Amino acid sequence: MKINPDWWKTLFDETYLITDARSVCDDELTSREADMVELRLELQKSWPILDLCGGHGRHALELSSRGFEDVTVVDYSGFLIDRGRETAQSMGLDTKFIRKDARETGLSSGAFRAAIVMANRSFPKNSGPKE
Question: I need a labelling partner for 16 at 20 to 30 A (CA). Which of 6, 37, 81, 87 fits?
């Protein structure tokens, strides 16, 4: 059996949000992951931040809701980008969503102070950052 190397171009749609809901639609998990990112990267509110392969922007939206001023999501899935834009608008957030291939975004290499690429793997509740 040969696997299409472009499998990822069609996988991330509304079904993905259902099949991976235990992690990609878990607000508590997203909050803990954003805590970890914020702490480990020592993010500043004014830094431009890129969420690469960010899907519907769960981490980007969480950071924006915490007062981060310049957060951008890049993802290939038109469905997820549209979902993220709608969510940002409904939350009154200025998070930017760009539909591009992560390998060729067209964005300036110096445009961001921090970049994150987050997985959708669940972690135990007690595995968050230690203060």
Answer: 37
Q: What is the CATH number of the domain that holds 62?
A: 3.40.50.150
Say whether 110 sits in a helix, a strand or coil: coil
Alpha-carbon gap, residue 15 to 105, rounded angstroms: 25
**Residue whose C-alpha is closest to residue 52's, from 107, 10, 9, 129:** 107
Q: pTM for this structure?
A: 0.81
Kindly calculate the radius of gyration of the chain based on its CA atoms and give it in whole angstroms. 15
Collapsing DSSP to helix, strand or coil, 19 comes out as: helix
44 in a structural domain: yes
DSSP letter string, 43-108 = --TTSEEEEET-TT-HHHHHHHHTT-SEEEEEES-HHHHHHHHHHHHHHT---EEEE--TT-----
Q: What would the pLDDT profile of 68-115 be if each residue is shown by its tens digit? A: 999 999 999 999 999 999 999 999 999 999 999 998 999 998 999 999
Assigned domain for 114 exists: yes
List the structure tokens of 120.
């959708």
Distance CA 57, CA 74 (A): 9
